[in-house]
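Bit of a strange request maybe. I'm writing a small parser for structure token strings and I need a real example to test against, not something I typed by hand. Could someone generate the tokens for this chain?
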Amino acid sequence: MAQQEQCAPSDAWARVKSRLRAELGEDVFASWFRGVEVEQVDDEVVHLTVATRFLRNWLRAHYYDFVLRLSRGEWPTVERLEFRVRQPHFGIETPKEAPRQRQAPAMHTVADLAPLPMPLRTGYGGFEGSPLDPRLSFASFMVGASNRLAFAAAQEVAGAFSAPQPLFNPLFVHGNVGLGKTHLLHAISWDVKQRKPESQVLYLTAERFMSGFVQALRARDALAFKEKLRKIDVLLIDDMEFLQGPTIQQEFCHTLNSLIDGGRQVVVAADRAPTQLDKLDMRMRSRLGGGLVAEIGCMDYELRHKILEKRATEACSENKGLDISDIVLAFLAERLTESGRELEGAVHRLRASYQLTDEPVTLETAEQIVRDLLRGAEPRRVRIDDILRTVSKHYGVNRGDLLSGRRNRSIVRPRQIGMYLAKLLTSRSLPEIGRRFGNRDHTTVLHAIRKIEQLMNDDNQLREEIELLKRLLRE
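Reply from user aminoacidic:
Good idea to test on real output. This should exercise your parser:
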């Protein structure tokens, strides 16, 4: 009886997987669900295991509700799913069980990508690479001043990888976390496979390379491991800063030299330039810096706003009734400056809030939702110089125009808003505010304040703009 109960979860999960295959199609099922296994089932929780952290995060974000619904067909009392990452393995060791035909893991393809001539693979000769995210293509990469060089170099590498001697080899991309390094490596992989499906492309994190090498040493098959790597057409290594251990570094350096000398393309990403990777020996740092080193810098306001706008458009198209105004996007673009993941996370939260509460996304609700992302800086004392700078930037007018005698509507209204904010957020008197705004008298300042207060009563858009400016100035 105990044995029957122990087998029941796996049998039920097999039926769930059959329904997943039927509803999603063979390609999507093979990409995301073939390797998902059930570990145990409690009264309210189904515990599932997956091969990588990426798969765990992807399934949580994109298929959680769908899988939960199908699971309740087998376990009606289940309330939630739990995903755990299994110990990664590589196809180097000889199977101890009876051999069976085994497919290399798919480089994940889904319907939202352009049709490819054949299923993409992250493996070569039984060696399993890290999974690729089909969303991370050149088309979805947002280009700005901080990443233009890296983006152009990545496109050049993808387009010319089969040249007798690649122009940029290796290509080394570096920058802080969340700025798009991994996106470019995935995009190169997808683009190469679309151009030449038979090419051998292998994308690995440094951690996965180390794990594979250790497994090969334990299986006493290190020579085969190295030979397989050296036959790759395009090798992409992510998170190079985590490559540790003199033996592993030495073997990677040999592989790197062999590939480059053989005209094979190598692309590497890390959080800092090769010369600053202190854990790597001098020879490897020199070789990595011998090609093109492209930095991805911090995103400016325009790029952050562009990313938010694109993600918000996608979210609104997928959720009927959801509207994220430009006022909200401007606030987020001004305050969230760390990474693209932070920006995407903010949009995900806004979408989830709307789905769960069915309440419109306002500036106030947006601030509440992303409060922990904005935490860090203490509220600061607002100065009139801060107001002049913020108003000038927001409305696209020169500071000199705000202080001038010009009476164009495009100048007068921002000037009046600046005076209103100065009275609201500072302790300056009306005469002093007038002096700081181009030597105007206190009656002009008072008129501006009353005018803005009156307009705010009738104009929701203006009220939201001023609320945005207040938040930007206070935080």
